[in-house]
From TrEMBL:
<dbReference type="InterPro" id="IPR006143">
    <property type="entry name" value="RND_pump_MFP"/>
</dbReference>
<comment type="similarity">
    <text>Belongs to the membrane fusion protein (MFP) (TC 8.A.1) family.</text>
</comment>
<dbReference type="GO" id="GO:0015562">
    <property type="term" value="F:efflux transmembrane transporter activity"/>
</dbReference>
<dbReference type="GO" id="GO:1990281">
    <property type="term" value="C:efflux pump complex"/>
</dbReference>
<protein>
    <submittedName>
        <fullName>RND family efflux transporter, MFP subunit</fullName>
    </submittedName>
</protein>
Length: 269
């Protein structure tokens, strides 16, 4: 049944193609038409720019939430990360700036005492003060550069982690999968079809809507001979009616593995 479900999904909604596997030969009075849909169809984007280095799945493959679908080439980002980590860990320039600042502070202290004692001129005092301030600014600049290097390293780590494109939910990989060496350029890397739970779209005459609200648990019939029954539960009813058919769409959910998206079905309230 799993293989058949995959084939049905990849083929697209069968009821939209005029094919009716799961057609029910005898239609009871009062039966409501319905269609079985996937819970969601998720287009997986490439979170960072680059070439796909690896694609780990194939169309029709079932994946679990968190599985790696594909990887983006992050070699350049890895090299940039190594440089940023070296700058963040390096102490030579910071130690040199600290030493210059210490010397400038001592020289200014001496110059200040000499100026107060009338030993040196105001110009010499101002020069010592300027050297002290310059050394202090250089020390602060080196400290800021180290902080920036650490922040840049963290940014690159996040970017590299995003190179792993993971499944946001469990489901089945659809067609249109990109290949290694391709760049997404706005196209999805893969399409994930989430089928747990599945959604049932029921076309309800306006006059029967209240009855369904009062009985949220129903049974649908599907399958090659209409012999597969599935328990479904009301999720919500559309607030808009179709004026042409005088019907409203009601949506149910089911986790029955014996039915597949694309089947037509019917509900007998």
């Amino acid at each position: 049944m799993r293989a058949f479900l995959i084939a049905m999904i990849l083929a697209g909604p069968i009821y939209a193609q005029g094919i009716t596997p799961g057609a029910i030969p005898l239609r009871p009075v009062g039966a409501l038409d319905c269609a079985i849909l996937p819970a969601r169809i998720i287009e997986l984007a490439q979170p960072i720019a680059g070439v796909l280095a690896e694609v780990r799945v194939r169309p029709g493959q079932h994946v679990e939430q968190g599985d790696v679908i594909a990887r983006v080439d992050t070699d350049i980002l890895q090299a940039e990360l190594a440089q940023a980590e070296l700058r963040a860990a390096g102490t030579a320039t910071l130690q040199a700036a600290q030493a210059r600042s210490d010397v400038a502070n001592r020289l200014y202290s001496s110059a200040r005492r000499a100026f107060d004692g009338g030993v040196i001129s105001a110009a010499a005092h101002e020069e010592a003060l300027r050297d002290q301030l310059t050394a202090q600014f250089e020390l602060e600049r080196e400290r800021e550069a180290r902080v920036l290097a650490e922040a840049e390293a963290e940014r690159l780590r996040i970017q590299i982690a995003k190179g792993d494109i993971r499944a946001p939910a469990s489901g089945i990989i659809g067609e249109g999968l990109l290949a290694p060496g391709e760049v997404a350029s706005g196209d999805p890397v893969a399409t994930l079809i989430e089928v747990d739970p599945m959604r049932i779209e029921v076309f309800v005459p306006v006059g029967q809507v209240q009855r369904l609200r009062e009985a949220p648990d129903q049974v649908i019939q599907a399958g090659d001979r209409g012999d597969v029954e599935a328990q479904v539960r009301l999720e919500y009813i559309s607030p808009l009616a179709d004026q042409g058919s005088r019907t409203i769409r009601a949506y149910y959910t089911t986790d029955n593995e014996n039915i597949a998206p694309g089947y037509r079905c019917m509900m007998i309230p």
